[in-house]
Amino acid sequence: MKFTMFKHIPNILTVIRFFLIPFIVIFMNSGNYILAFIFLTISGLTDVLDGFIARKFGFITNFGKLIDPLADKTTQISVLTVLALQNVIPLWILIIVLLKEFIMIAGASFLYGKELVVSSKWYGKISTVLFYVAIVSSFFIKQFNLIIFNHPEYSMSPLPSFDQYIYYLALIMTIFSLFMYIRAFYTKGYLKKENLKIDSSK
Predict the structure, then answer these.
(1) What is the pLDDT of residues 154-195, one digit of tens each?
(2) In the chain, fewer beta carbons within 10 Å around the N or the C end?
(3) CA–CA separation, 120 and 75 (whole Å)
């Protein structure tokens, strides 16, 4: 009971992640990838913290189960959109990610308010980590190459786009994760008639 007053902290941390997105995008557009990295890292830390608090003290709510992944995906898609517009990643990578996230969000909305859950698996977490590593690598490459461009006297060669290979790995894991997510819907019987009914009492 003594922790009841803190039950909204996980959801508050999740909402904060939404407010961090504009700062990340603004710094990326202004070419300040160091600050973009800092704000992205803060966003990631709040993600870890709200999940830890929710599980540790039993503060898991239907709202949290829906809004937490939405905050993650909105952050990821916002960053990838800017990178696509900056020609850092090809547009088709963004399109595939958008399609995957649309399906995932639709599935989460379907499960909202029901006693059903598709728990997070290792392959989904690896996909998220790989995208984070790829994005951070892009930030580092862009920032380094901007410095070289603005200071030709350094006589250094620009860094190659090694981050592309990490994006490809992340995309492979993303597609695999989506396949396993859809498979879980069928194998766990979430599409049975009784699960398709809406419980109006909730």
Answers:
(1) 667 777 889 999 999 999 999 998 888 778 767 765 555 454
(2) N
(3) 18
Angle between helices 163-187 and 122-150 (to 10 degrees): 160
- Which DSSP state fits 194? H
Domain 4-196, second-level architecture: Up-down Bundle (1.20)
Closest CA to 44 of 123, 102, 129: 129
Radius of gyration, CA atoms only, the chain: 19
| pTM more than 0.70 | yes
Q: Please list the alpha-helical segments (H only) found in 86-162.
A: 91-111, 122-150
Report the alpha-carbon angle 95-44-16, nearest 5.
95
Question: Hey, where are the domains in the chain?
Answer: 4-196
CA 154 to CA 9: how far, in whole Å? 48
